[in-house]
């Protein structure tokens, strides 16, 4: 976590101090390719959640990643997947995303992503219940910091998500 704060402070300092224009310039094709690669990582994670299966998703995260969800510190992604997300997904019949949008900003070997979406969770029917419970619908947002590793692959270092009941449309 200290490294994340140090990175943010360094980035802010460099932006305030300014750097020569040619040092700031990133070829558009590289930035576009990196943005697409980051969005692909985010999409792979989203698809795994929709499949209700976290198998292999640890590769999308750094070993020392940090996950924060709705005010809670969940630890590394491996811990989160084993102790929170994985068991939770087993209780679901379906998990779908809609109204999804992602914005990505590349800064050297780091990427900063913001995702907004609506998700709907269908719970499994409890044998004791006559009917299945109503679906859970939430409006969510996630911010993530990704780093390009030595192999050129983008991985999530830190992610924070929160959600709330959608506001009624006026």
Automatic annotation (TrEMBL):
Record's keyword terms, sorted: Signal
UniProt keyword Magnesium present: no
Keyword Signal tagged: yes
Signal peptide (residue range): 1-23
Domain DUF4440 residues, every copy: 41-156
A family per Pfam: DUF4440
Name used for this protein in its record: DUF4440 domain-containing protein
């Amino acid at each position: 976590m200290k490294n994340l704060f140090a990175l943010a402070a360094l980035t802010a300092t460099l932006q305030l101090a300014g750097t020569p224009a040619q040092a700031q310039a990133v070829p558009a094709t590289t930035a576009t390719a990196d943005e697409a690669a980051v969005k692909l990582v985010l999409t792979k994670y989203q698809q795994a959640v929709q499949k209700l299966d976290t198998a292999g998703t640890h590769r999308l995260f750094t070993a020392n990643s940090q996950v924060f969800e709705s005010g809670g510190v969940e630890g590394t992604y491996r811990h989160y997947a084993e102790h929170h997300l994985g068991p939770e997904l087993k209780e679901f019949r379906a998990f779908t995303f809609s109204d999804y949008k992602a914005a990505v900003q590349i800064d050297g070997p780091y990427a900063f992503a913001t995702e907004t979406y609506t998700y709907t969770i269908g719970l499994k029917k409890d044998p004791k219940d006559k009917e299945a419970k109503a679906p859970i619908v939430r409006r969510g947002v996630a911010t993530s910091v990704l780093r390009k590793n030595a192999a050129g692959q983008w991985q999530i270092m830190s992610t924070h998500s929160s959600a709330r009941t959608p506001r009624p449309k006026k």
